[in-house]
Design a protein that fits this description.
The complex is a heterodimer.
Chain A (H helix, E strand, L loop, with lengths): L1 H17 L7 H37 L1 H4 L26 E2 L2 E2 H4 L2 E13 L3 H5 L16 E14 L4 E10 L2 E2 L3 E6 L6 E9 L20 H6 L2 E4 L1 E9 L6 E9 L17 E12 L3 E16 L6 E18 L5 E20 L8 E20 L2 E19 L2 E2 L7 E12 L2 E11 L7 E13 L7
Antiparallel strand pairs in A: 1-2, 3-4, 3-21, 4-5, 5-6, 5-7, 7-8, 8-10, 10-11, 11-12, 12-13, 13-14, 14-15, 15-16, 16-17, 17-18, 17-19, 19-20, 20-21
Chain B lengths: L1 H18 L2 E5 L2 H11 L3 E5 L14 H9 L2 E4 L9 H8 L11 E3 L32 H18 L4 H23 L7 E4 L5 H7 L2 E5 L10 H14 L3 E4 L5 H11 L3 E3 L13 H13 L1
Parallel strand pairs in B: 1-2, 1-3, 3-4, 5-6, 5-7, 7-8
Chain lengths: 464, 294
């Protein structure tokens, strides 16, 4: 600004002195000089105004997103600002592909790493199953484990849709766990989600493992859906939040049905899984909230996970009921009580051996089994202490092979305790001990996890 | 006959919106209080975050989503203060009226001059807000500016009552001017305080006092024993006029510092409703300023 003025003033002075008026008396010359300076001053002010206008219109047009974040002083208080740290307001990052504030999606990376200890041998852990439920082991290694580095990308696509992608990178490669759009502007409280996403069935299912309250999934999840729940499923979801005095969310999904304990990718051509769920919520007192509701998922099954060397083909129905109560009286204190009951029915044929092998056998199988977990966590400042109890075969334990109920052994259960320290919002350190009696054979697995979760990048949202 | 029918339709058309109040959803208590001054009986206000909750660490609770679902306008503090729940709240509300870019999406911080915008920031610096200090609700000039914005936004949504919003704004302006005289007569100028959290920078700038040190070593990071020890020495040397804390932040540390140094703790409500007397924004400011000079 000062340089501008000087640049204009110097030639103007020069011009004034070189003009014919030089010969006149001093007073009139001074007067001329004064007038010229004034005129120049006015011109400079005008130009500055023009520059400011151009600047603001340019800023508005080039990066409407960034403009939202820039302070707009109002005339009344412009003079009041202390000017502290104001330098950043007009700074803009631009490159050959445009302003980065506009072209880059939000990115975050969450690393989940843990140490695992057990009194069982690794070979025993690798073959440890829940007989009658699943033959899939948990898949952890004694010692250091790197579960994943999960890359999240998200941004609005346009004023109507937001896109989310979740790309966990593991030691064995990269997956596309989720990639879906969500609508934001449909009328009447409707919302559509489509692509590949975690089903709205149940509670833990829709959460990412790093948001769970324990390192691992509860036994009933592992028994019926797998250690990550249904996982990302391809399909479309419609949810509705009607305009009622109470919170009630209703949802339906049509899914491809790839989960290898419920459905199996080859169970049927085309999508064959259907989900229905409802969730309702109320406030209890000043600091308490309760949320609960039923879920249902059904589809065709073609799965190798009933037992080793078998294939089950038939139909699957899974019912769920979730309940969570949260009490949060202050920043330093909090309590969460959460439970989910699952009941799974399957009926069809179990083939033992390879279908092409004439020696293989085919028997009818009817399974109607259930399981529940109950967990509670109490927060004191940056610490949380938690306990969880899981049990299967609670009310129903039908495993009827060729019309005969099978005796599968002891009732599977597990008890877990955990202690968390959260140094900041972005780091979690968790020590967890479990006594796992899920293998029915009396072999107890005493497990110890020391987990570390770290998040960088865009701020994650805290869903309830 | 035809004329009267047209007149009747015109009356019905113009009258129907006047019966429905504008549904305002405010994230924080102070926003609800200021919106109430501007909207008065024309609006129905729901405040999402209670004074006992940390505005930064709230979950997007179903009750909040339901309120946002029904809102005509969502008013929020901005500057990323609500980053932990606002994006998911807006998305889960399924309410087209409050989506970003719509008139029903009202960011109060758009109407103010922001202090402490960091030139560069990363999370090793603690919970630094990259868009600048978000706690501007202690600044009367800025609140007046936000109120002006609210009057404009409410008039746009409910044009038949634009005059009412305008006169409410004038009344609010008069009240704030009168109060400002009262507040600036208090001897806050030149005082020096230690603060628990980076919460009072706008207050200090507007009322001419300085904050010489913080109990938190970095925003959002609780102090270590070593940091407290060094702070005791600093307080003993500089003898500030008090240690600023809020009803929910820093009681334990301040009591310890007071016991060691004799410098008093000054409890300042962090929002409307945080103390029993802070019923609205004016009484909240009354309490804040009288606590400073007590």
């Amino acid at each position: 600004m000062k340089i501008w003025r000087r640049l204009v003033l110097v030639p103007s002075l020069f011009l004034t002195m070189a003009s014919p008026s030089f010969g006149q008396d001093v007073e009139s010359r001074l007067k001329t000089l004064e007038d010229t300076t004034k005129a120049q001053q006015q011109k400079i002010e005008e130009q500055q105004r023009l520059i400011d206008e151009l600047k603001s219109s340019l800023g508005g047009a080039a990066a409407p997103g960034a403009a939202d974040t820039v302070a707009r002083p109002t005339p009344g208080e412009a003079g009041q600002a202390t000017g502290q740290g104001q330098g950043g307001t007009t700074a803009k990052v631009t490159g050959i592909f445009g302003g980065s504030a506009m072209t880059n999606p939000y990115i975050s990376l969450i690393v989940n790493t843990f140490f695992y200890g057990s009194d069982q041998k690794q070979a025993e852990l690798d073959s440890r199953m829940i007989p009658g439920f699943t033959n899939v082991p948990v898949g952890v290694h004694k010692g250091f484990n790197l579960d994943s580095a999960e890359l999240f990308l998200f941004a609005p696509v346009d004023p109507y849709l937001t896109l989310y992608a979740n790309i966990p990178v593991t030691e064995s490669g990269t997956e596309l766990e989720e990639a879906y759009f969500v609508t934001s502007s449909l009328p009447a409280g409707l919302q559509v989600k489509g692509g590949k996403f975690k089903s709205g069935f149940g509670r833990i299912n829709a959460q990412h493992p790093h948001a769970w309250d324990f390192v691992d999934a509860p036994l009933n999840y592992r028994a019926f859906m797998g250690t990550e729940g249904t996982g990302g499923e391809k399909g479309v979801q419609l949810t509705w939040l009607p305009d009622l005095p109470v919170y009630l969310q209703l949802g339906v999904e049509a899914l491809q049905g790839d989960n290898d304990q419920l459905f199996g990718a080859n169970a049927k051509d085309g999508p064959h899984a259907l989900t229905i769920f409802a969730k309702t919520s109320m406030e209890i007192g000043d600091s308490g909230t309760i949320l609960f509701g039923p879920s249902f998922i059904r589809g065709k099954a073609n799965i190798p996970t009933v037992a080793d060397n078998t294939t089950f083909t038939g139909d699957t129905d899974l019912f769920g009921f979730e309940m969570v109560y949260k009490w949060k009286p202050s920043r330093e204190r909090g309590f969460v009580l959460q439970s989910e009951y699952l009941y799974r029915k399957q009926s069809g044929d179990l083939r033992t051996g390879d279908a092409a092998d004439p020696a293989s056998t085919l028997e009818s199988l009817k399974r109607a089994q259930d399981g529940i977990y109950v967990q509670g966590l109490y927060q004191i400042d940056r610490w949380r202490i938690g306990a969880r109890y899981d049990v299967l075969d609670m009310f129903k334990k039908d495993f009827i092979l060729s019309g005969t109920q099978q005796d599968l052994g002891k009732r599977p259960w597990r008890a877990t305790g955990a202690l968390e320290f959260n140094p900041s919002e972005f780091t979690r350190i968790r020590l967890q001990y479990s006594r796992d009696e899920s293998s029915r054979d009396g072999k107890t697995n005493n497990e110890l996890y020391l987990q570390m979760l770290l998040g960088i990048g865009a701020h994650a949202a805290h869903s309830f | 006959m035809r004329k009267s029918a047209i007149a009747l339709i015109a009356i019905l058309l113009s009258a129907s919106p006047s019966f429905a109040k504008v549904k305002v959803v405010a994230t924080l208590p102070w926003i609800g209080s200021v919106a109430d001054e501007i909207g008065k009986e024309r609006v129905e206000i729901t405040t999402l975050v209670k004074a006992n909750q940390d505005p930064h660490l709230v979950d997007a609770k179903p009750s909040m989503i339901l309120a946002a679902r029904k809102a005509d306008i969502l008013m929020y503090n901005g500057l990323d203060l609500e980053i932990g729940y606002l994006p998911i709240l807006i998305e889960s509300s399924r309410n087209p009226k409050i989506q970003p870019g719509k008139p029903g999406n009202f960011d109060c911080s758009h109407f103010i001059t922001v202090l402490e915008i960091p030139v560069s920031v990363d999370r090793s610096m603690g919970d630094v807000h990259p868009l600048g200090n978000p706690h501007y609700h202690y600044s009367p000039a800025r609140i007046l500016s936000v109120a002006g914005g609210m009057a404009g936004a409410l008039s746009a949504l409910d044009p038949s009552h634009a005059d009412a919003y305008k006169s409410n704004l004038s009344a609010f302006r008069e009240k704030i001017r009168a109060k400002e005289k009262e507040w600036s007569a208090l001897s806050t100028k030149g005082r020096r305080f230690v603060a628990y959290h980076k919460l009072f920078e706008y207050l200090a700038a507007d009322f001419g006092f300085t904050i010489t040190a913080y109990v938190e070593p970095k925003p959002g990071i609780p102090p270590s024993a070593g940091h407290i020890e060094r702070l005791i020495e600093t307080i003993k040397e500089t003898r500030p006029d008090g240690i600023l804390l809020t009803p929910y932040y820093g009681r334990r540390e301040t009591d310890f510092l007071t016991q060691k140094t004799g410098v008093r703790g000054v409890v300042i409500p962090h929002d409307v409703g945080a103390t029993p007397g802070a019923r609205d924004w004016f009484s909240f400011m009354d309490q804040t300023l009288s606590a400073l000079v007590k």
